[in-house]
Amino acid sequence: MESTTSTKPKFKFNLTDGLAILIWAIVIFITWTFMHAADHYLELTPEALGKYYTVKCFLIAHITTGGGSIIFGFLQFNKRLRGYSWKLHRIIGFLYLLAVLVSSFSAVALAFTSAYKVNLPYAFSLQVWASVWISATFLAYYAALKKRFSLHKEWMIRSYLVTLAFVISGLVLKTPYVQSLGSFEDISPSLFWMGWSVPLFLYEVGRTSKMIFK
C-alpha cells in the first residue's frame, strides 16, 4: 500500500507575517482605544447612557460586535492565513459576517430612535451608513456563496472600509482642529459621510488605476 502525505502547506513565520501581526496589533489597539471611550455606558444608568437609556441593548450590542468586526475583518485579508486553511478563513469570515449583522442592525435601530435626539442630519447620515454597511457585506457574502471569489474579495474590502468608518470619523472628531469647527451636532453628520465615502472613493480610484495603467 502506498503511503500518502498531507498536501496541507506548512505555516512558516517570516518578516511579512511579523508585519501583519504588528498591523493587527495596531488595529486591536485602535479598536480598544475607541471602545474604551464608551466604558461609561457599561454603568447602565440613566445618567451614563443619556439619550441611549431606552435603547441601551442596541447600543452595547453595536459597540461590542462592532469592535469584533474590525478585528475579524482584518484577519480575512491575510493571504498566508487563507492559503494555510480555507476552513479557518471561512470560520473567521462567518464570525465577521455575524458581528457586522449584529452591529449594523443595532446601528439601524439607534439611527431610527436615539439619533433623532441629536438632529435629523445626524440620524440620516447614520441610516445611510448602516444601510451601505449591510449592503456591502451581503454582496461580499453572496459572491462567496456563488464562488465568485474575485468579486467576493472586492466587496469584502468595501465592507471593511465601511466597517472602519465609525472609527475613522470618531478619531477625526477627537482632533482639536475639527472640534474647533463647531459643536458635535453640527460637524458629526459630515464626518460620518466622510468616514465611509472617502475611503471607498480612494479604493475605487486605486482599483481602476491598476486596470488602466497596468
Topology record:
Layout: H1 15-36, H2 46-49, H3 56-75, H4 79-84, H5 86-111, H6 120-145, H7 149-163, H8 165-173, H9 176-179, H10 184-213
Describe the structure.
This protein is mainly α and 214 residues long. It has helices at 15-36, 46-49, 56-75, 79-84, 86-111, 120-145, 149-163, 165-173, 176-179, 184-213. Helix 5 (86-111) runs antiparallel to helix 6 (120-145), helix 6 (120-145) packs parallel to helix 10 and helix 8 (165-173) crosses helix 10 (184-213). The protein is globular, with a radius of gyration of 20 Å.
Shape: globular
Distance between the termini: 51 Å
Q: What fraction strand?
A: under 5%
Low-confidence stretches: 1-6
- Overall average residue pLDDT: 83
Helix content: over 70%
Give me the Rg, rounded: 20 Å
Question: Element order, helices and strands?
Answer: HHHHHHHHHH
Largest sheet, in brief, is:
none
Structure classification: mainly alpha
Number of helices: 10
Number of strands: 0
What is the compact description of this entry?
The chain has 214 residues and is an all-alpha fold. The protein has helices spanning 15-36, 46-49, 56-75, 79-84, 86-111, 120-145, 149-163, 165-173, 176-179, 184-213.
